[in-house]
Batch of 4 targets.
Target 1
Amino acid sequence: CVLAICVVGTASADVTVPTLFSDHAVLQRDMPVPVWGTASPGEPVTVTFYGQSKSTTADDIGNWMIHLDPMSASSGPHDMVITGNNVITRTGMQVGEVWVGSGQSNMQRPLSDDCDAAAAIDDATNYNMRFFNVTANGGNVSTTVWQESDATSASAMSAVHFYFGHHLAQEMPGVPIGLIASAVGATAIERWATCAGSGKLYTGQIAPLQPYAIKGATWYQGEWDARGAQDSSKYYWQLPCLIEEWRTDWGQGVFPFYVVQMPKMGISSIHIVRDAELQTALNDPNVEMIVTIDQPGNDVHPPRKDPFGVRLAKLARKFEYGQSLVARSPFY
């Protein structure tokens, strides 16, 4: 009897999906959307969402994936039903624009630390934004879930990424905005790409997000690498290789990558990182960069992140969404 129970138990594992497909998730519009998970080897799996029904069979180690057809923006809310040996239902999902924000402390720092926090937090419920905040969850992608924008979730969100999404939501009414944040303070670029070095944070906090459909990524990092000329000079090749690795592993083409150029701060080789960021933007037509050296102060952690997020969002409005505006900062 015990043997029979064990055999039955291993033969019919429940179908699962990552927490990226939790309640309140935002799926990327206007492109194929992969949905994936695990099940028993050979188990039929069907995903139903927004008028579509897609089926597949789990492979011999129990992995499965389907691709939803491109969908228009919709605040829904829509339910996603995943059916295998069991049934999973996710509610309140939407279709809109999804962006990843990553880097070190200036991307990590929450909105609650910003000098304009009170007004921004008060306004957080007025726009349709959703957050997948890996940063606030200690870097654990597997237990992070989507949250609707409110005073609590916005307070913990990356200030730069919040202001980026907030500006997009203001200028693109009717389009849900999904923001994924995965950043860690005091980290070198080599930790965010295996091609650049150890890649430990890339393996732990970026790769598990793939291949979730996204529009693009924003990047605010480089302070750690500017502490000496030897490390900072590596940035000329490390940043381009990071961008290439992310794009290749995501498997959805040459998506836009927006870089925050280092502002004024008292770090010895910051000018080298700043130039490496500029050269990366000049050499890749799908990399854009915001200039921040005009911002007041000389703090490694600028206390007001609104201009940073808004400048990034203006790039997206012009180059991704076709709006007519002056978006680029002055370049030498």
Target 2
Amino acid sequence: MYKNPPFRQKRHYFHSCSLGETKSIKPLIKENINLSVITNTGYEEAKKYNADVRYLPFEIFIPFWLKNCKNLIVIEAELWLMLFYIAHKRCNKTILVNARISDKSYPKYKKFKFFYSHLFAYIDTIFAQSEIDKQRLLSLGAKNVIVAGNIKSAVKYNVTYKYTPIKKTIVAASTHKGEEEIILSAYIPNTQLIIAPRHPERFDEVENLIKNFCKKHNLSYNTIEKGLKSDIILVDRMGELINIYSVADIVILGGSFVDNVGGHNPLEIAYFNKPLISGKYIFNQHTLFDMVQN
């Protein structure tokens, strides 16, 4: 925190969590903004924007760091009482954008309705992803809830590099711990498998998994830096998935084969009209999967 001075200018202040949430605000940015994020991947994305960016992983301390702003805009489900309480005093308005409450989370929220009812008193406007999200928010004490859809559907995707696959290509995208083993165990001979872990801190771990698998099955391996030249390829840098989706034959979307993530955004894959394989645990992405059904 001490390495992050308060924002220099009074602007609209956006606060997001991860890579997907940070990407989703791009269509909303029409002028210079202040933007804080709480993950490394979110921070790398945020640096591309017309914004004064802070990497603030310790959200509980942000209220004591916050100065005056035009409006506070928080993305999705970052419901921190003190942040909204302080911002309600120091900013013009407090706004929750792309708000959602998943099937899995809703029972937990209801147990603490007394707390969330208090929190929502400091949020002026909430833009919910769906009617279901709106009704859940209202039941918890939220006021002035508007169904605006999922802002991730407004993002445009641009290919920045053209890869050349050597054979039929299957992409395992945004994978989490435990999913790479599942996907490797289903490897189809004479295809090219590209694995892109969701979090950079897992690159070394996944690389070891792939190397051991390739050694056991006499397969070739390389990282994405060398292009699409081997049987199995590790994407060990951020920002390449859009380029890879554009040349994929099939995409397996991670975060959906383990029960503690809730899935990831399928619209990037649908944009390129690619067949999509998903697990059943997509409780955080229902509104987006509804858009690509069948």
Target 3
Amino acid sequence: KTTTTYMVKSILENAGYKVGLIGTIEAIIGNKIIPASNTTPESYVVQEYFHEMVEAGCDCVVMEVSSQGLMLHRTAGIPFEIGIFTNLGRDHIGPKEHKDMAEYAHYKSLLFQKCCFGIGNIDDPYYREIFKDASCQVCTYSCRQKADVQASDIMLVNRNGQLGTFFKVNGEEYAVSAPGEFSVYNAVAAITVCRHYGIDQEIIRKALKTIRVPGRVEVIDNDRGYLLLIDYAHNAMSMENILTTLREYNPNRLICMFGAGG
């Protein structure tokens, strides 16, 4: 969710919008950056941020809406124009979050009863469960099967130590400056949002080529002659994803230093 929100924000800003952001890493209101303690803040904090964004002249807001936020009514009363479903994994199951995947999926699905237009990753096994009670118009995206917005011809690229991906969406060529198939999924979700607003393809291409998300496969510049990345992989699923992805680029040597609270 985090990477996708930053991609959408970058594209909209390249198109001339002034964009606020609320998410796992931080809230961004104009030039003000507020470190986050929750992915989706308490309801009164969300409304306070919205007010500040209006005062700062923001045209739109991109925010991460967690299943916890939905369960605890932190987004109650907010009429979302667009909702996105990226994927579901076992990273929020436990005594302080959701008792099982069925409960997790149920609360995640509530977003699509609060928005006008829903965008969903049809390749995820939980897609049907998430959208079965949706009250919004639905648009699907995929990297593997027929969908409303479909990625194809995915290629991994390593140029001068910069890992990225090339791909096509409905025949149009794109590149994103982040490694792996999961980066393509995130990019396709962002492309689908911005196509909904009629944003020019060249603006989308330019934004995706230069996107950099703090702590999400983030390249740390150094003069030591090796590629240094920092990533928020915090559990078994995300750790496996990032290591498998990096292996696909055939590094001579891969060193992993980790501390994972999840």
Target 4
Amino acid sequence: MNKLVLLRHGQSQWNLENKFTGWKDVPLTEQGINEAKTAGYLIKKNNLKFHNIFSSTLQRANKTAEIAIKELGIKDLSDTNQFLYVRDKSLNERDYGDLVGLNKSETAEKFGKDQVHIWRRSFDIPPPNGESLKNVVERVSPYFEKKIEPLLVNNKNILIVAHGNSLRAIMIKVGLYKPEEISSIELPTGQPFCLEYQDGIIVKNYYLK
């Protein structure tokens, strides 16, 4: 049995400020740093060791991965004797287009709560000049199929540190949720979500405790 662990980055500065972040490269907050440490502690507590680690190219994901791995007693992510670490923009957060940098509450007041809800939670309707979740699935899926899925088939343990929407896209890709279900799924920051595989099939999923 092997495992795929999905970890949303710790709280970022714009999470704290309730802003649409997208591809804007913002840092973690102190809370986010602590969440990353806790994620590492939970991974260690559950005796998980990874063959491969993947993250987006954005610093909030990279830093979360770095901090979590240090909690396992590994010096840094360049320690290739332990695992292979790869960063790729295919795993970046959804691009919110014209909404990037805007406060979510103020945006709802400006465009209307219903319209903003559609932009945020519909599967295939993008915000102005941005990506829909469907677009994110179309971006993430080929990368997952080429780089990650073969490793899972070969019984490797994988950690992916990324973002709410790119991780939702992976959940759709692996068949955990249908597109019409995913809008109700909230991924907490800094909480590792584990998928257990048996012969290439998901047999169990849960948050690490």
